[in-house]
Amino acid sequence: MAENVFLFIPNIVDYLRVVFAFASFYYMPSDPWLASILYIVSGLLDAIDGHLARTLNQGSKLGAMLDQLIDRATTMCLCAALCHFYPKYMLFFQASMAIDIVSHWFHIQSTLMTGGGSHKVLDLSANPILRHYYHNKMILFVMCSANELFFCMLYLCYFTQGPTVLFGLGLWKLILYVCAPLSFIKTGISLIQLGAAMSNIANLDMAEREKMKTK
Q1: Inter-axis angle of helices 171-214 and 90-113, to 10 degrees?
Q2: Are 88 and 164 members of one domain?
Q3: What are the residue numbers of the active site?
Q4: Is residue 105 part of a domain?
Q5: Total domains present in the chain
Q6: H/E element holding 181?
Q7: Could you tell me the mean pLDDT of each successive run of 10 residues in the chain, 215 residues long?
Q8: Please, what's the b/e burial string for 26-36 (b: 16 or more CB within 10 A of its CB; e: otherwise)?
Q9: Distance between CA atoms of 168 and 37, rounded to whole angstroms?
Q10: Residue 151 contacts by C-beta under 8 Å, 6 or more apart in sequence?
Q11: What is the DSSP letter of 165?
């Protein structure tokens, strides 16, 4: 009897991520604490689905796609909320969403076109920045976490700066300042990722055109 990939435990965890994320979005305008808790739970579930997939031998293409798209969608929805809370900085949030979505889309497509099995597994001849970013789990975790925390702290700081901890700064604002440079670096890496992916696809185009000429 064939396995039901839809009911793989890691994929069920991803479904729960969606439930908690949308519950968080519902409460974002009115209850920052409940919204934050729900968003954090969704993020924590993201940290365990990959581990479960490896432990239970339930890795799947469906799960990989779910994981990638839920990551992009939750961050995008949070940025959409920030457009409401910080209308003067709407262009910044719109640019962040566009860069995140477009760079990852191009990267995944170029990986598939060149025969790669995963967007996180890069050939040693690939861009060294992207290679270290995706192959070093600590770097990847820190950069992704800092990016999420940056946007989360922007959200919380709209309501309160948090308990005072250092130099009169609230805890949420302090975390915001610490995470901001890493978030901007991650955006820079996304642009590098976009450029590398576009270059790979353009090289495929050129190779195909050369084959057509020789025929």
Answers
A1: 40
A2: no
A3: 71
A4: no
A5: 2
A6: helix 171-214
A7: 88 96 96 95 89 90 90 95 97 97 90 66 62 83 93 96 90 96 96 91 90 82
A8: ebbeeebeebb
A9: 25
A10: 75, 78, 79, 82, 183
A11: E
